[in-house]
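User: Quick sanity check before I run a bigger batch. Here is a single chain. Can you write out its predicted 3D structure?
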Amino acid sequence: MTAVLVIEDDARIRLAMVLALEDEGYDTHGVATAEEGLRWQRTTPADNVLVDLMLPGMDGFECIRQLRRDDDVPIVVISARDDTHDIVAALEAGADDYVVKPVAIKELSARLRALRRRGRATQVSAQVFGDLEISPEAGEVRRAGRPVPVTRTEFRLLCELAEHAGKVLSRQQLLQRVWGYDTGDERLVDVHVGRVRQKIEPDPTNPRHLVTLRGLGYKLQR
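Assistant: Done. Predicted structure follows.
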């Protein structure tokens, strides 16, 4: 049975989520603080972690960073905050997805299943785009010979684009291939593309490799 840890300080919301996820067949445990969540995950590791951002004491952003330092567990942010800055900050901290409250449990359950199904990035040979090198087998991205620190999802995004180098992939195609979602918030793709550009492009405002085709999507070009 898939185990889910819910880190949510609102007792009513926490209980409702735990009960709803248990009805969906998950072994679910809820805690009220980041500190409790970190202790639980270190001793009784869950398969997925749901994190609220507005937590007492340590906030959700720092909780995500510490979870990510410990393991590669899929992390989904559950928050009433819908500001793009918060979404960017949470994803950069290491979250895999961001769901805005109120949460539709059926949709959340489908996303959790998709995150658990994701394997390693597609195993294509290393590809070079100018001074950028993407090596799926080695799990590395290098620019001018130096390692580029990317999150797991950013790496999968780059590998997917590299596998289809020169071809345009729509946001929906990327949601399906990188996240495993049939539908979802396309901002998830836009935010990750923006973060990747900051890391791989000399001038992110005028990208050479990861380019936008307005109304169509994104492509990685040499």
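Helices lie at 11-23, 34-43, 60-70, 84-93, 105-117, 152-163, 171-179, 187-200.

User: Great, the batch can go ahead then.
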